[in-house]
Design brief:
- The chain starts with a helix and ends with a helix.
- The chain has 13 helices and 24 strands.
- Helix 2 crosses helix 9.
- It has two domains: about 240 residues, 2-Layer Sandwich (BirA Bifunctional Protein, domain 2), CATH 3.30.930; about 100 residues, Rossmann fold (3-Layer(aba) Sandwich), CATH 3.40.50.800.
- The protein has a seven-stranded mixed sheet. A five-stranded mixed sheet has the order 21-20-22-23-24, with helices on both faces. Strands 4-9-8 form a three-stranded antiparallel sheet.
- It is an alpha+beta fold and about 425 residues long.
- It is globular.
Length: about 425
Amino acid sequence: MKNETKKENDLMEKIVSLCKRRGFVFQGSEIYGGLGGTFDWGHFGLALKNNIKQSWWKKFVDSRRDMYGVDAAILMRQEVWQASGHVAGFADPMVECEKCKKRFRADQIEDKKKCADCGGKLSEARQFNMMFQTKVGASDDSSAVSYLRPETAQGMFVNFKNTVDAFHPKLPFGMAQIGKAFRNEITPRDFLFRQREFEQMEIEYFVRPADWEKYFEYWKGEMLSWMEEVGLDMSKVHELEIAKEDRAHYSSRTVDFEFDYSFGKKELFGLAYRTDFDLKNHGLEYIDEEEKIKMIPHVIEPTFGVDRAVLALLLSAYTEDEKGDEPRSYLKFKPNIAPVICAVSPLLKNKPELVEYANTKVFAPLKAEFGRVAWDDNGNIGKRYRRQDEIGTPWCIVVDFDTLNDDTVTVRDRDTGEQARIKVVDLQNYIKGKI
């Protein structure tokens, strides 16, 4: 068991190291010692995150006729959070060490009486509200209080009437949003898994009360389908039915999709049946224009964490290849999700004729067509391959002296290491066929 734990810890260390070394993710405020629970996204991490979001938006919004996008403000009136129950009930149990003064979530520690860090006595648990409170405007009284939103859902609920009035949708229909959320976590941990600032991809799907079970099962299937599409290791994905006492205050049924992270089986995404809790609390209703009746729809809520999706994808894609003379590690991303689709290299960067050909006849057309194309002429070819492997680039394209004679290039496959000579005029179709 100890060896297995060490192996998993080593894997997480390798992922964190790769993310910094290759420009995926950096510690927030790093030059000042870092700020716990915050991370900054580098060039390739941002590209990966954007590809995930674009894939999600294409599947759940652009390809559907019953979904309406929204991008609500992060700051909302405090009455929103009072009506939603967050002011009164969005809290975690917290204990504090009387000796070292460190604070812990009471439901995440084994010994409830003794500090795991210094052995000091732990206080009795008290509820800690996780919302970041702020003030809006020049006033300094209670009327100026607002909060950084702890979820994106309420921004959709408060725009329910606007959406109905603007588009007159028939039930069932949904609203979708991708945006930042903030939670003042007591103990942020495990890299991107538990943060104080994170991003959500969320849907509120409005249905007739009698239909909720049908659509709950439908959305479960849709969520699993998308996970497979983006390249998650589905053998590591598990469904967990959440017990009543563990569900959020608004939920009458919740299924968590858990993932086998290197630090244990933890929540990845969630599916909740929110009944009419939110619309009723906000005093909102729906008028069926055909049947001429008023009703309060019920809500099915599929929730996806962008940051957790990235972490799960990194763990799914990370591969170590011990074959050959030089072992290598690489990220086995699907081409549509990879930060870079292909990298173009002149065999030697000090040969102007190779550089010119590679730049004008190979790189420029591919860049114009696919966007996510890299230029790499740093170091020898072997080092370039290893670098692109760690970024997760599916194909490396090399312009050599034979190219000048026959207009063919070497295309190397990331996963197999195999190389093929491809005509330059066929490159775009070759890559499109692979994608």
